[in-house]
Design a protein that fits this description.
The protein is of the alpha+beta class. The chain has two helices and four strands. The chain is globular, with a radius of gyration of 11 Å. The protein starts with a strand and ends with a strand. Bound molecules: copper (II) ion. The site of copper (II) ion has 4 residues, from α1.
Length: 68
C-alpha cells in the first residue's frame, strides 16, 4: 500500500468531500480516501499495482474538481 496526498481545487463543503472520496474509493485498488475541503486535499491509500495515479486523478476530475 502507498499513501499519497493530492491537492484538489474546487471542494467547498462536506458534500464535495464525499463526492471526491466516493469517486476515488470506487476504483479497484483504492483502500481508503479522506478528503478535506478546508485543506483542499485528499489523502488516498492505494495499491500502486492495481490503481494508477492517472486513474485516480481522472476520477476526481470527472467529478468536476481539478487536481494539481
Ligand atoms: Cu460542496
Amino acid at each position: 500500500m502507498a499513501t499519497i496526498t493530492l491537492k484538489v481545487a474546487g471542494m467547498k463543503c462536506g458534500g464535495c468531500e464525499t463526492q471526491v472520496q466516493e469517486a476515488v474509493k470506487a476504483l479497484a485498488g483504492v483502500n481508503s480516501a479522506r478528503a478535506s475541503h478546508r485543506a483542499g486535499s485528499v489523502e488516498i491509500e492505494y495499491d500502486p499495482g492495481q490503481a494508477s495515479l492517472d486513474a485516480i486523478r481522472k476520477a476526481v476530475q470527472d467529478k468536476g474538481y481539478s487536481v494539481e
